[in-house]
Amino acid sequence: MKKMIISAALLVAGITIQAQLQNPDFEETENNLPIGWKNKPSELYLVKSDDAVKYSGKSALQISSISNAPKAMQTFSQIIPIPGSGIRKVRLSGYIRSENTEGKIALWTQVWNAEKTMIDFGNSDTQNNIVVSNTDWKEYTLEFLVDDMARNFVFGGLLQGNGKVWFDQFSVTEVPFSDKASSKKALAYIDEFKNIVKKNSIFKDKINWTLMEQNLHKMSKDMETVEDTDPTILYIMKTLRNVGDNHSFIDSKENVEKKNVSNPTAIEPESKLMDQHIGYVMVPGFSSLSKEVGSSFAEKIQGMIRKLDTENQIKGWIVDLRRNMGGNMYPMITGLGPLTGEGTLGYFASGKGKSAWSYKKGSSGGMTVSNPYYLKNPDTKIAVLIGPYTGSSGEATTLSFIGKKNVRTFGQPSAGYTSGNQSFRLSDGRNLLLASSYEMDRTGKEYREKIQPDVSVVPSESKENDADVAEAVQWILK
């Protein structure tokens, strides 16, 4: 009876691919565990087949905490081949019941390619279908757009924290696209976004645009508003990621408005005198697009450099960019201008050629300090500290130093977002930050991956001992 109910429901919802999912209703068991489903045994949880509480049929899968586990998690999953070809929409669902839970319950799915590399991921939280704790049986779903790159789902559920939860009647269903025509407004927005990428992305030649057009046409059916187009926009962004673009992103209208008037990251630069003769300056990421706010940030950094240099006999400088995750590069570069020196600091390079970024007379990229400072000794050594959190504009700021004879970099490889993101304001108020160029240092060396430090330093195990700083100090005082 249970299987007949499932089949009827799937015929209404779409094309069933249930045969790919083994033991979807948790009926078949071995050693009191559902066959086909894997879980990693834990001393904090009990995973078992339960024939007393179930949505329908003979049994369900139960996860229960047997010790206090507020921060622990128990998962279960199954690898499912994805049948079919071309672009398609697939719904994964399951029924969930819980009691006495304190924590999180979710369905989750990874999408793997042929190399078993994860190319997409979603769970109940990220897809805004949050599982409500301590309620009776309810169906929850996840949806994915997949193409021929997708080979397998890893589909399962989890309990994070304490309590007891049951899962039953899982299904995997291909949902047909609509045949209804889309509105002109929706199609115009999709074309606007697609054409920006097609014209400006440094990865545009790696995309099969004929296939892209076909898939967008199929996916866009029945879309009326700009909000309805989100799946097509996400598909374009996912395609970019799959061909190597790990940097482009979309900024919301709300974030754009905040950045136009303030610095949402709100982390201040820091400075101090070390070993009596070394000037230390930490420059964090900076996200504001405002010239006034950006220039004020640059003024603070130059003020720190001025104070250290005029009040002390500086033998060298440490520029700490390890917490600089990016944003707007020009306030950072303008602030550090006394240390980078004037002139061309680096280049953006694309198929159209290359364009320089520079610092001169207290200005860079529209950011300006009113009374630019010049070092007493511009030839003193400068150690630049980088690491895995040095990303995007933090990396561009790093490149602004590389190539100077008195500079050496220390630490660990950077994040690897060494492309220049160009800002495109979309008609709905959002910003597309699109990787449209690669970056070069002042010597013309191009960077397409992580920046490797001149001196690789093993990270400190103790917070009190900073190995990067120690290496930098040793080099400066040689």
TrEMBL record:
InterPro entries in alphabetical order: ClpP/crotonase-like_dom_sf, Tail-specific_protease
SUPFAM superfamilies: ClpP/crotonase (SSF52096)
Superkingdom to which the source organism belongs: Bacteria
Residues covered by the Tail specific protease domain: 229-458
Leader sequence segment: 1-21
Record key words, sorted: Signal
The protein's name in its UniProt record: S41 family peptidase
